[in-house]
Amino acid sequence: MGRLFREAVPAERLEVIVPEEVGLHVDGERVHGTPMVSGEYQVIVRVCRDDGIWEEGHVALTVNPDPASLWKKLQSNPNGIFAKPDADKAALVTPQLTLLAASLRGRSHAHTGAYREDDFAMEYLPETGWHVMVVSDGAGSAKYSRRGSEIACHTAVEVLAKSLRDAWMLNEALEHVGDGPMTVELETLRRLSFNVLSPAVYEAQREIRNQALRMQSQMRDFNATIVIVIARPVRGVWFFASFAVGDGGAAVMEEDGHVLALMKPDGGEYAGQTLFLTTPQIFADSEKLAKRVQVGFAAHLKFFAVMTDGVSDPIFPNEASLTTPEGWEDLRQRLKQVMNLRAPAAGMEEALLEWLNFPSPGNHDDRTIILALPNGGAAA
C-alpha cells in the first residue's frame, strides 16, 4: 500500500489500526497486503507527541474491486438458434507453414450470456500450394450476425478451394513474374486475383441473402465483415492477395522488419462504424470493389496474421499503426510470451486461444486471429 507519511515516524510513536476484514497488515509506517473486500473503510492513525500525549485521526481508505472480477462469464444457450461454441480453435500444418487459429467470445458478450459473433475458416490446397484464410466479425447489433460470419467464412473458403485449383491464368502469371515484380506485373496480378476473390465474396453474400429469405428476415440481421487472405510460395518467395470488407487487420512481417499490409479498414462517420459484407452497395461499383484487393510479394517470413478488430483495436492504436513495423513487432513480442514461435506445431492453438483473453481497458469485443508461422522457425 505504501508509506503513510511523507517523513518517517518512529514505530514506537505510531499506531495504525486497519479494520480486520480488509485483509491488510501494518508494519511500522507501512500498510501492506492484498485487500480481500472492496468498500469504504476508516483507518485509525494514532501518533504520540513529544510530550507523550497520543493524538488520533482518521484516514479514508477506498478498496476497489479487481475490474476483471466484475465481468460475469455466462454460458450461451447451446440449444438456441444458430448456436455456436463460446470459443473455437484449430491448427493446419502444411509443408511450409503452421496455421494457428483461435476465436474467443468477448467479455461484453460473456457478461450477458450472448453468443460469440466472430468466426474463421482456413484451407490448404496441396495441388497448387495455396493457403486460404478467412476471418469474419459479426455485428453485435445484428441478431443473427453469428450466422452471418459463419456463412461468410465457410462459403468463401469452399468457393476458393474450388476456384484456386482452376485459376490457371493467375497461377501461370505467377510463374512468369520476374525478379522484383514491376508495377505492370503487380497490376495484372491484382486483376487476376480479383477475378478469383470477388466470386467468393459474392457467393458468401448470396448465401447470407438466402439464409435471410429462409428466416423471413433482413440482410442487416446477418451483418458481418470479411477478411480473406490467400498465399502461395512462388520461386522462393511468397505471393499474397487479399480482399476485405469492414475492419480488422491483416499483414505480413518479414525478417528484416518490412511489413506488407494486406488491408485498409473501412471506417464510418463515427467511431466503431464500418461496412459489412451484407451491405448491398458493396457490389454496386466495380471500380471501388476492385480496389479492395491487395497483392504483394514477401520473402523470409517472420509471420503473417489475419484478425478481427477485437484483436487489432487493442494492439494497434490507430489505422496507421497497422502498416508499421513497430505495431507488428509489438504483436510478435506479445505472442512470444505465450508460445515458441521458433517451433510452431499443432497444439499451440490452445495457447493462442488463452492469449486472446488478454486485458485491455475498453476493449471487450470478440477476438479472432489466424496466425501463420514458417515451419523453419524464422518467426523467432
Describe the overall structure.
25% of the residues lie in helices and 30% in strands. By secondary structure, it is of the alpha+beta class. The strands form 4 sheets. A 6-stranded antiparallel sheet has the order 7-8-17-16-13-14. A hairpin with a 4-residue loop joins strand 9 and strand 10.
Give the tags:
6-stranded antiparallel sheet; 380 residues; alpha+beta; 8 helices; Phosphatase 2c, domain 1
CATH C-level label of the largest domain: Alpha Beta
Q: In percent terms, what proportion of residues is strand?
A: 25-35%
Q: Helical segment tally?
A: 8
Mean pLDDT: 89
Overall number of domains: 2
Q: Name the CATH superfamily assignment of the largest domain.
A: PPM-type phosphatase domain
- Say what the CATH topology of the largest domain is: Phosphatase 2c, domain 1
DSSP E strands, number:
17
Q: Main β-sheet: number of strands, strand sense, barrel status? A: 6 strands, antiparallel
Q: Which of globular, elongated, flat, extended, rod-shaped describes the shape?
A: elongated
What is the ordering of alpha helices and beta strands? EEEEEEEEHEEHHHEEEEHEEHHHE
Arrangement of strands in the largest sheet = 7-8-17-16-13-14
What radius of gyration results from the CA coordinates? Answer: 27 Å
